[in-house]
């Protein structure tokens, strides 16, 4: 049962990529970590890779499945009695690629340039022959995983986090969710007007995006094309990923207001070589998790409600 001096963490989507590495690094710093993954077989594979660490325990968790979330709550409650750190890491890109996958890297790099230019970058032309394909199924999964999944796990585990003397939540988000990359002025206004922001308003943005997407795509698997998506100025590529990470950042701020005793932040790990990026990007998994791990171990009194880029997180002095 719970040891008052021990810290307990749960990391979602942790069978590979940044989630796996966050578990490994937290465990090597003495935290008892629940490595959670949606697929039992992948849980076993992860267990095999970390067998030398006796402070990692394993549990199935599909963040889109409320019964699975309830089961992980019961597991942590009965095994540790509380939770100190929750890392909402599970995520999908919500887009597939037809042809040369380096097209994804080109778009991400162009978005990073645009972000640095405050959203004012020059129009850019893709060189790779591949095409990004956003299907209704992929977008629906992205909505359920990247936004509602993180919300569902957070809300279920709040009672266990409230029993910690120094609780913290890290939402693994993305620069691509920054509002400068949102062409839709209504979305920018709703998500940036902190004084009037509510969970219902964030959900409204998500549902509006989904409705417009459904209008255009029912029966189609083609790429972004003329219709509601264009008329309403949703992002022309990686739309679901950008909208849902923007929603996650807004939810992070709201949750921090609602639970002032919990340190809750969203952080971008940086562009890293994992499956979600088809292993493109300048950062290794080990480098990418530096920022999320730092945010997970922030001492009491650190920032809360923020979205931080990797470099901002790494330059925090606490
Ligand atoms: N890599 C980057 O450049 C980058 C940049 C910014 C943000 N991020 C964010 O970092 C997080 C981790 O991504 P990654 O780079 O490590 O990619 P990854 O290697 O593809 O890992 C994604 C993880 O999420 C899991 N997952 C997906 N849907 C899930 C669900 N319904 N329930 C539970 N787990 C689920 C995957 O499990 P399966 O193996 O079962 O699919 C996998 O373990 C994501 O939130 C991503 O948006 C990554």
From TrEMBL:
It holds the Pfam family adh_short. Gene3D superfamilies: NAD(P)-binding Rossmann-like Domain (3.40.50.720). It is an enzyme of class 1 (oxidoreductase). The keyword Oxidoreductase applies. Keywords: NADP, Oxidoreductase. InterPro entries: NAD(P)-bd_dom_sf, SDR_fam. Belongs to the short-chain dehydrogenases/reductases (SDR) family. This is (+)-neomenthol dehydrogenase. It comes from Salvia divinorum.
